[in-house]
Amino acid sequence: MTKKIVLALLVLCLVAARATAVDGPLDLEKRAKGAGRVVVATVTDVAEAFGENEFGDQLILTAVTLRVDETMKGVHEDSVVVTLEGGTVGELTLTVSDMPKMSRGERAVLFLEDTPNGTHVPHGRGAGVLKVDADDRVTGTPVSIEDIRAAVKATQNGAGR
């Protein structure tokens, strides 16, 4: 019995260590450097439909319309549409494990890049969307919008890594 408990704890520790190694901490400066635009925005509309991604794959895409509250990097627009892979059309749902599902009213900091066809997608896929709570903190972390703002500013001043 004791051996089973010790083995179970060992497996849990290995899984946790692997998750940390794969996901790592939030490297805000790296994300900000790679993104063409960084915005704080609120979801105003969500539209799901069949479409084609930049690789020519046919799948369900979600067009998320955002009201831009703040532009930390890049050209400011009052609203922007971001394309996320996944969604539901009729009775068919496509869940993409590394992409968030966004709902009307949610706020997030988005690290965006433009695609060749003129749309916007999150830089680093789902890692480019940091949902924020009512206290302006990234959900489930102590990271605040102010921390992100400072990281973005550091990259623009040439002080980033």
Keywords, please?
161 residues, 3 helices, disordered N terminus, 25% helix, globular, OB fold (Dihydrolipoamide Acetyltransferase, E2P)
Note down, in words, how this protein is organized.
This protein has 161 residues and is of the alpha+beta class. It has one domain (26-156): OB fold (Dihydrolipoamide Acetyltransferase, E2P). The protein contains three helices and eight strands. It has helices at 2-23, 28-34, 145-156, and strands at 37-52, 58-73, 79-85, 87-89, 92-94, 107-114, 120-122, 129-132. Helix 2 packs across helix 3 (145-156). The chain is globular and about 45 Å long.
Could you tell me the CATH topology label: OB fold (Dihydrolipoamide Acetyltransferase, E2P)
Share of helical residues: 25-40%
CATH first level: Mainly Beta
Tell me the major beta sheet.
6 strands, antiparallel
Mean pLDDT over the full residue set? 85
Class inferred from helices and paired strands? alpha+beta
Q: Give the overall silhouette.
A: globular
Q: H/E order of the elements?
A: HHEEEEEEEEH
Query: Beta fraction of the residues?
Result: 35-45%
Number of domains: 1
Do you know the CATH architecture?
Answer: Beta Barrel
Radius of gyration: 18 Å
Span of the ends, CA to CA? 49 Å
Low-confidence spans? 3-24
Q: How many β strands by DSSP?
A: 8
Number of helices: 3
Quick recap:
The protein has helices at 2-23, 28-34, 145-156; strands spanning 37-52, 58-73, 79-85, 87-89, 92-94, 107-114, 120-122, 129-132. It is of the alpha+beta class and 161 residues long.
